[in-house]
Amino acid sequence: MPVFSPQPGPQTQFLSTPADIAIYGGSAGSGKSFALELDPLRHIHNPQFGAVIFRRTTPEIRNQGGLWDSSLTIYPYFGAIPKRSVLEHHFPSGARVSLRHLEHADDVHGWQGSQIPAIYFDELTHFLESQFWYMLSRNRSTCGVRPYMRCTTNPDADSWVATLIEWWIDQETGFPIQERSGVIRWFIRVGNDLVWADTPRELIDTHGDPSLPDDHKDQPQPYSLTFIAAKLEDNPALLGSDPRYRARLLALPYVERMRLLHGNWIIKPAAGLMFKRSWFGMTDAVPAEAAKNRVIAWDFAATLGGGDWTVAVVASKTPDGQIYIEHVHRLQGSYLDVDKAMLKMAEQYPGARFVIPQDPAQAGKDQAGRRTNLLHGKAVVKAYPVTGDKAKRAGGISAMAEQGNVRLVRAPWNKAFLDELESFPDSRHDDQVDALSLADYMLSRRQLSGPMGAL
Which residues pair with 101 in a beta bridge? Predict the structure, then answer.
């Protein structure tokens, strides 16, 4: 039987802290999910013990290599019988560990009346703040195990978690304050605000009634919380089995690299971070092998004669991964003007694949269908539903550019193009960035498959 134990350092600290709530986070690959699934094993001989591990959606649990798969590498060694249909492990004593989702805000109400001694959130920033605090009310026990919550997370500057743990984070640099990692603090809620102190006594003295005993129901009942910072280097088991994992994190765009490799809690996309003009090489012509793999990606303006631009980015890619931006065409015109421009570019670049954004509503589907028919017999057209955060969509091409893998053909359009990229995402206009992101998507997935390939 394999030996299951936490690795020395933050993982051991996480599994031994007495805090009511412990949040374990930082770099990707720091052993967070393994620690979370290891923790319930201390109570599996208690027949009344039950634990629930939450992910935001069921696919995140069932996906290959997800929580369910990893749980199968641990719990059966302790006699657990896995129940895949309900995502539960039943131990010989009667103890249970369940894997569940909280996809929608009101899913928490399905747990009304529950008593859960140990509650776990994997990737806490994916959950709503209201879900977290509601489930804390379900964290109670009659089985002899003192109730507690354990959570893991990667940094997210815009999340409510960043505010919750701000005492443990250097607000100037965004990195955890190492001497505070694992330090326990106490809080109570006064109105809608959390009030913090270094000891529960401070909170009772400040906000309680001195005439009442400490355990009186009307006295404040402080909760303890700690944040434990973890880095990839704290997980030598992963680095030993997958030594290239760090290299993959280094290949991320700058903002994501700072978050997922270095554990930065305040960094977010900002002008000058996503793109720098020094990253882009210049050339006078596109190699023949790149021209064989050419796309023309569009971003359509919603208004006529002002505001945003309709943009077409002509891009190609060599077999060794070098991307060439051949031309960027911009116009502010009518629907008919855009049709004419598309037909002209189909003639100018025979064999190029056109990719157009498709709004999810029916009008977007109608527009995509109409323009596909317009270019029938002249070009292959793919329509791609564009959703989600623009900065995340631009992350792939940002990383390619930073690695020196994107070149521009020298032309008058270069300046306006690079000006917009350097000011993204803070600028008012991002049409060229959107079209560039779409071009990168198509070039990176020449052989499309799955739902997007079916478009």
Answer: 55
